[in-house]
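Quick start: read one record
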Amino acid sequence: MPGKRARRYFSELERGLIIGMKTAGWSTCHVAGQVDRSECAIRNCWEQWTREGTHARKTGPVATRKTTRREDRRIVWKALVDPTVARSTIPADVSVAIVPQTISRHLAEANLKSKRPFR
């Protein structure tokens, strides 16, 4: 895409510089010229500082794992031993309480494709 630029994130140093310059009374336009960023990016960084009192980047929520590594290996092992086993029956065989989508994700991570038994 011709007009699409890759997103560049601020480093901690850049965020500190922006906040320092804005605190010293510099204009948004002047700060943008000094750190080679857009005025909108400078404004967003400054607004986050004034609103939250922090310049750290927000990290999204990380989902907690429902299975241990040992249980993951048992799930994959079960699928390797019996390739025709249904993904809905694996949690009962391995004694973990997870949904079939999780089973599919674990098998995909192990590069196992779904197999259908012949009639």
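The two ends are 48 Å apart (CA to CA).
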